[in-house]
Amino acid sequence: MTENATTHGDAGNGTEAVPGRAGPDVRDHVDHVLDQWHAQRPDLDVSPMAVIGRLKRLTLFIEPEMKKTFAAHGLDRASFDVLATLRRNGPSTPLTPAELMASAMVTSGAVTQRLDRLQSRGLITRTPSPTDGRVVHVALTEEGLALVETALPDHLATETRVLAALSPAEQEQLSLLLRTLLLGLGDTF
Amino acid sequence: MTENATTHGDAGNGTEAVPGRAGPDVRDHVDHVLDQWHAQRPDLDVSPMAVIGRLKRLTLFIEPEMKKTFAAHGLDRASFDVLATLRRNGPSTPLTPAELMASAMVTSGAVTQRLDRLQSRGLITRTPSPTDGRVVHVALTEEGLALVETALPDHLATETRVLAALSPAEQEQLSLLLRTLLLGLGDTF
DNA sequence: ACAACATATCTCACCGCTAAGGGATCGACT
DNA sequence: AGTCGATCCCTTAGCGGTGAGATATGTTGT
User: Fold this and answer.
1) Most B CBs within 10 Å: which of A36, A149, A178, as the mutation test of the B interface?
2) Residue B111 sits in which domain range?
3) Looking at the record, which segments are called Disordered (chains A, B) (predicted)?
């Protein structure tokens, strides 16, 4: 059941069907890690590591790619995240720090810092709520809107490139599996 | 091809077959984000976000769970990572900082810090290589070995729990999809 | 009216990582 | 031998995050 990559039955399929896809004999870092565990602790079922190890490692590969794209527009991951959240919510509809905090899953302190940076660059405005003295309305400025509109296609191109090893159908499959995990962990909207 | 979660055809299947699995009408955070993009920018193909957004978000859910498990053993992610790498490599076979750096995909400065912390707690030893004056051999102490052996089952239990929403076959499927992405990004061993 | 609690934002100390660079050592080539 | 580039490990400054808590405002119940 938890058969791993070392015991692939070679189905004799040509691996040239998808250009750029490695053959079944090529092994990734996690394959090696699993082998080490099997050798050292054959009593343990380390199959969860096949998934979680690759999740972690994949984000380590992806993040620098994103970072490069953002840097080309004078941004970083955190700043783009705020700008994009405001943009997709409706470029003229303000959000509160609390909403941004929930959306990005970071602490309130992190949101404050992000907004400080963006505000000092003139990319967002912070306006006190007229109806609730505790609340602040965060909105995109003209410059902020223009910047996120410019960066967005580049960002999507980077994401597309990172996923290029999977067919559209496989990407959909992957997306659904991840969705099931998220729902299982309580990530309902 | 890039049909998204808003246009599910309800196949009328009972969702009670897998307990704990949410029905198809339940939507996660990324479903909502994709809806917002469709409404704001129907011209853009945001399907890569379905995958990458969920990858990012999943790690945000998983990491605190891991953190709790490690904290219960007086550890953190980074320290456990080093101890586990040494353990699975063979508990008496030393590794160099350069090897730990490649395995963890962090910079040399991060490795130095990690080793400083572990060494000051007596969990590892740093020994100058007898054959190469530049190299240091990092090895587990008795205490380090004992600690990682104790923490490992707990860590695996946490990983298993996080993945519980997927059947073993689905976990295998997910693992292979992630592996294909990693190989596409050059993560060969 | 007032107390008690809840909520929203911000502040501050600390943590782990990156990026850039420094010093030491090794290997290859003249 | 001597030099030059590569490699290894460490140092430092800065960045973005967390966690705890301060402050101000809103809400509820008596």
Assistant:
1) A178
2) 77-154
3) 1-26
